[in-house]
Amino acid sequence: MPSQNPKIVLASESSSRKQILATILGYPFITHPTNIDESLHPNEDAQTATMRLAAAKLKAAATNEAFNDHFIIAADTIGVVQNRLLNKTDDINLARQILRMLSGRRHMLLTAVWVRNPAGQMKGKLVKSKIKLKPLSENEIEQYLETREWQGKAGCYSIFGIAQKFFISITGSPSAVMGLPAYETINLLKGLGLK
Predict the structure, then answer these.
(1) Which CATH class is domain 8-191?
(2) What is the pTM of this model?
């Protein structure tokens, strides 16, 4: 075991991502939220959008010269249902519409993670998970919207929050559904020289 832990930055303020990274690393790291334009481009497919947004977060964090000798990790998650991309929203009317769309249906969550090493090399990985929600009543949707747990979440729900009672099945990586695929993140770090 090295005498000093590697310097790592998580380019996120997500509590789920922090928790996952703390668990897989086992030592302290820096969190550095980035402020990028997360708008989706016209005719952009979900895989491209997810990879682009995660890479943009990483590049934004990398502009901070204090992190030149750090590994930097960034991630983004986008939901897809019926070929419609579901990004994060703080608009309650849009959240209501999205939850109605997800009700009783299977949808996909895409999570992209990018890692940059101190030498400036970058690698990324996309992880797909499938999720099925039970049919939701209007009352269930309204009660959930009142919790505000959905704000800032792809698909307008928190998988391990109050909304977990809505899920029939989850296929794929639970940590990717939470926002940071643990297996892929550790492998990217090791592949870029983390000891």
Answers:
(1) alpha beta
(2) 0.91
Instruction: Encode pLDDT of 53-86 as tens digits.
Output: 999 999 999 999 999 999 999 999 999 998 889 8
Q: Where are the domains of the chain?
A: 8-191
pLDDT, residue 1, reads 40
By the 10 Å C-beta count (0-12 exposed, 13-18 middle, 19+ buried), 151 is classed as middle
Q: How confident is the model at residue 2 (pLDDT cuts 50, 70, 90)?
A: very low
Residues marked active site are found at: 76
